[in-house]
């Protein structure tokens, strides 16, 4: 997992911080936030704890920065293709979301828990990311082919998004009897189905 | 809110404990778990803190007992009528769930947070209650009129149940544009709709 950290490479402090954040995000993929310590990052990066405190201030600030980066990655990686049928584009985006959570299960689960459990800053980052993903549904589907934009459908998308998260986390924990394609189809097709009953 | 605590009433220790639990559940309705202290219960019940420690051991055990009682109440109050059309019975059960969360919003929200946030005992109580509510869908619909019992529909019901919780909590926080009847209709009708796309 460790990233080569040659002392010969001259990086600006900002570049160095970015590199350390990337490493933090990679370490978080298979660990909970509780397990992501400054000590571990120092060991994996091959630099001193003191230098990390210089870059991040304290453990909380480090966690916040890593989680913010992870949320940005999630939003970027789930960006739908620019063209194509709205349902196909949503399916591509959902598949990317599923792949992201599969690849970053431990860290993602711990973020969901931390956000729900009352860490206010992490909750804000989580809610912002959720909100960005939910708003994208409406932005990407500006003609309302899948979901017309009404107070009821805004609420429905919030609920559907909670369902998608639960389905993905439950399926990863126990995928018996459901293929990846079935899961994706259930998640994608359920949105217009719920919107229809909400109509 | 306080329950009359006449010293003339002779209650067994078990009855007294039950009475205190009922009071704890009522106090939790409009408070978070963090706000539900032994001191508050002592004041409301008009008895000494020492006696409460005698009944409950410590604050954690008190919270566990109150949350367990609240979960039992939720399961009991959302029990569907014995007879009738499966969808009608589910709608009645969902309406009772909505009313329960409306009436106990602060406490319920804090339980969801505590359960998600890593308090293991509260998480178990929460998961048991969720699981009981989800299993009831299949038990009450033994003919599979709404949901046939398959691995895919077991997963779907988990997801739908997460959606219902999110819809209820979001709607209570901001009900603009959606009536109670619309919300209930969305929640009830979405289950067969999602099951159909999962078919």
UniProtKB/TrEMBL annotation, chains A, B:
Residues 37-56 bind DNA. Gene3D superfamilies: Tetracycline Repressor, domain 2. Residues 14-74 form the HTH tetR-type domain. Signal peptide: none annotated. Keywords: DNA-binding, Transcription, Transcription regulation. The keyword Oxidoreductase does not apply. This is TetR/AcrR family transcriptional regulator. It comes from Nocardioides aquiterrae.
């Amino acid at each position: 997992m460790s990233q080569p950290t040659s002392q010969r490479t001259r990086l600006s402090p900002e570049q160095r911080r970015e590199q350390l954040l990337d490493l933090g995000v990679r370490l978080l993929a298979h660990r909970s936030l509780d397990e992501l310590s400054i000590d571990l990052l120092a060991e994996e990066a091959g630099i001193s704890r003191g230098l990390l405190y210089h870059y991040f201030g304290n453990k909380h600030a480090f966690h916040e920065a890593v989680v913010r980066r992870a949320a940005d990655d999630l939003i970027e990686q789930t960006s739908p293709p620019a063209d194509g049928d709205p349902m196909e584009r949503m399916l591509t985006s959902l598949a990317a979301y599923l792949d992201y959570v599969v690849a970053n299960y431990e860290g993602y689960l711990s973020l969901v828990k931390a956000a729900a459990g009352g860490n206010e800053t992490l909750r804000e980052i989580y809610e912002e990311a959720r909100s960005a993903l939910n708003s994208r549904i409406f932005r990407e589907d500006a003609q309302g082919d899948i979901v017309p934009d009404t107070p009821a459908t805004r609420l429905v998308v919030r609920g559907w998004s909670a369902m998608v998260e639960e389905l993905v986390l439950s399926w990863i924990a126990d995928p018996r009897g459901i293929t990846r394609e079935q899961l994706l189809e259930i998640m994608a097709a359920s949105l217009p189905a719920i919107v229809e009953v909400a109509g």
